[in-house]
Amino acid sequence: MARAVEDRGYSVNQVPPAAHLLVSSIQHVLLMVTSLVIPILFASQVSGSPEFAASLIAFSMLAAGLGSVIQSVGLPFIGSGYLCPNVCGPSYFSLSLSAAWVGGLPLMRGMVIVAGLVEMAIAPIIERLRKVFPTFIVGLVVAMVGVSILAPSITSFFGLAFREDAIRAPDMLVGLFSLMVMVLANLWGRRFAKMYCLLIGILSGWILAAILIPEFRHDLVAVKDAPILALPAMGAAFRGITFDLKMVVPFVVIAISGSLKSFGNLLAAQSVSEPALEETDFAPIRKGLLADGFSTVLAGLLGGMAVDTSSSNVGLAGATRVLSRWISVGAGVIFVILAFFPRLISILSMMPKPVMGASLIFAGSFMVSTGLRQMFSEPWGSRKTFVVGIAFFFGLSTAFLPSLYARAPHFVQTLFTDPLPTATIVAVVLNQVFNLDILFGRLRRKQK
Amino acid sequence: MGEQALQSVRSHRKSDNRSRRRRFVIGVVLALLMILVAVLSGCQSRYEALDLSMYQYRDTKNLVKFVYDASRILSEEGLTSLAYFRDNRARFETPDYYLYIYDTTGTNFYHAGMEEMEGKNVWDVTDKNGKRIFPLIVEALEDANNPHAWVHYSWWEPGRFYPVPKSSCHFKVATPDGEELIVGGGINFPHEEKEFIRIVVDDAAELIERVGPDALVDIADPVSEYNYRDVRVFVFRQDGEMLISPAINSTFSQTNLLECVDEVGQKPFAQALEELESADSVWEMFMAKGPYQRRLIRKCLYIREATLVDEQVYVAAITDLPEPPY
Question: Are residues B315 and B209 in the same domain?
Fold first, then answer.
């Protein structure tokens, strides 16, 4: 019986045995760790000291960990109750950086709080918009969630540290090996191999990287200087919270975009967790968005970077069929505990980039195919062809031609930021426009 | 029934054996990998003596390693190794960089990509801006601030007809034949390393202290080592008055640098001077408009103090910073 459960995975409300719960949570934590590159990069971009970087990472981990627990534990009014942990949100990165450049960390904290409040305000509205999100648009949004991690996953897969730098052959080998181990363990493995395919892929890729690339061994040696246990220091940079009216509009726009991304993640989490649902159940989605906004506010209050729901963790859950929300709770608790162990954080954040990239591609590919499957699960017609096709064109153009939008009028710039929000907005608007004839027809019939 | 039980026991035993065998194989593979990691960790890299920590880009590090490897071959095998270099041109001319060897008078012994240069003297050859490249290489090799003798200039790629910006690093090699040779390698379209501006600013500060006001003429000269691509060493007084402008070849239009703000309203010069009260040199980041895309990009300012006769002045240069991969 136990073996049957292991082969099938765990359903959303099932509590796995303690050992499985722990190992599965660790597997998810390893994927969440890939997002720590954001506070690390942030600290380097604002010339932060190592102490500043350590505290920023710790506060971000605290916010993400607590956010994951709130999201999944099953509280009455907040949290989706799906396996959908929080990580440092890449969509907030550049704007947070701009805020830090203008007014230091206090302004970044203030604006992150504003963004979180906006997300919380959006949550109840999303539920009322159920009519504008038919199944095929939900599928499109889920597919675009996978597409939105394309850039970080591919650049990491090739081990790239800076734009336009050289790519090393050993990095490519490590990435490919890691990805193949994950995929083959998932396809051909049984029981543990299937369930922990990502963990196995990460560890084997890491070992290969340590063999092939001396840099990774040297990095690990450097870790010995980090303290084993330490409380995050509230240095001078972390004191105070300020606001700037000029930054409100860009932060509101990014909060809407972040909400749409989390909306996509939560839809994907629902698709994999409750496949029997014939229609989207918007109640957990609303509660999930509320939790996401609350976690972002928490991140601002704590002094960490804005958090977001993690697409890759939802993808991992779907790929392994291990969907228990308790794993998300476990991963959140581990993330909170890890925040007090700088040496462990240092080791984990030294995960070779190609291994990180392989993990993201593994999880992202599941998201893309889940979305496409969902999209084509209902009868297709010309209207849908144009809605989806045009949304794809404009959505993907933000990734292929970012410089084009940098020179566009301001209102276009705010709408065309990232494949996910852009494709979602275009699809929703076009779907309403292309169905105007049906609407008018109904109105006319009613009048008659 | 008994037969069935026996079959079930046999199949269990078979599956147990298979799983034991699988576990054994996995254990052996893991152990071998661990041993390999341990052995490799103890191995010494041939670049152990080469400090590359000052460079940010792999391309730059790879070029220094590439030239260093060639310098080792040359120092061990002397002039006989030239035959090896000539027989393996493809190995020493990659799409990114290429190798060359000169004597100290500027006579070319070997050029991986431009065979026709071999035997010619390039001492007086200048690039399109009038920069005399070879004398700059010789100076760079004597410069303690410039451990890998970097020189920046414009040249062209073999078979092409348009100018290409280049940065080259060099090592001086004493061969067993008693020859003193210069081995160097160039990179086309180089990345702007912070180390490059550290070298030119430190050199300029030393020149000011050694030569006095005449140094300003050399530093402002567009074909001197202090000016390359978009980088320009400039000098200003404590009150922000420019002695050499960061933007143009004149100071007729004075802007007080201490009052200058970047794209997000910060005053990088004023901030840097505050930090210089407790340091000899500082790196100050600021935001500027990127070309064409007009989005904001990070740049950095390297400033150090120098004494010009009896006056405290500041020597500085600006460069781009590496951008995240996405």
Answer: yes
